[in-house]
Amino acid sequence: MSMQSSNPNAHGKSGQPGTEQEWSTGFCDCCSDVPNCCLTCWCPCITFGRIAEIVDRGSTSCGTTGALYIIIGVLTGCACLYSCCYRTKLREQYKIKGNDCQDCLAHFFCELCALTQQYRELQNRGYNMSIGWNANVEQQSRGVAMTRPPVVEGGMTK
Q1: 4 within 8 A of 140, measured Cβ to Cβ
Q2: What is the rounded distance in angstroms from the CA atom of residue 107 to the CA atom of residue 78?
Q3: String of b and e for 127-150 (b: at least 16 CB within 10 Å)?
Q4: Dist CA 9 CA 6 (whole Å)
Q5: C-alpha to C-alpha distance for 103 and 127, rounded to whole angstroms
Q6: How far apart are CA 151 and CA 22, in angstroms?
Q7: 125 pLDDT more than 60
Q8: Residues whose CB falls within 8 Å of the CB of residue 29, separated by 6 or more in sequence, listed in order
Q9: Quick one: the chain helix, strand, coil %, rounded to 5?
Q10: Can you tell me the distance from the alpha carbon of 99 to that of 130, in angstroms, rounded to the nearest whole number?
């Protein structure tokens, strides 16, 4: 059973009707989130799967879309053709400036930068990317704040 929100802007910022927003981070800001940058460098299928699950609002799973990304990449060498479609979906959902041609070029020429930017965009809109759509919806419905736990300093030492 897929728990889907009826509000397309359920998390994060929502723009004024008819206005387009800028991306929340720059295209080449990959290293601003080092863990995401490393994950995307070594396993772009995981980053893509997480993005796709959130963008599709749980109708597809991270594992399924990640596996399709790998298969398309192995068979055609152009997994970017699949992933650029999700950039377009994300832009349309959140009314972010751009067009289909720019989406395609971004993924064709720098797939990793495009994926990390989309990942950061969803994080900045309040999604916990590592838990998937259903857990994000559940947290929202319980009113759990979408923040990271505090960093705990080292314990007592002798």
Answers
A1: no
A2: 10
A3: bbbeebbbebbebbeeeeeeeeee
A4: 9
A5: 22
A6: 31
A7: yes
A8: 116, 117, 120
A9: 55, 0, 40
A10: 28
Lowest mean pLDDT among 1-5, 74-78, 81-85, 87-91: 1-5
Bridge partners, 21 (sequence order) = 96
Cβ–Cβ under 8 Å, residues 119 and 46: no
Residue type, 104: C
Instruction: Determine which of 5-9, 32-36, 42-46, 136-140 has the lowest per-residue pLDDT on average.
Output: 5-9
* Alpha-carbon span 52 to 48, nearest angstrom: 6
99 Rama sector, left if φ>0, alpha if ψ -120 to 50, beta otherwise? beta
Q: Is the pTM of this model over 0.90?
A: no
Residue 123 identity: Q
% of the chain exceeding 70 in pLDDT: 79
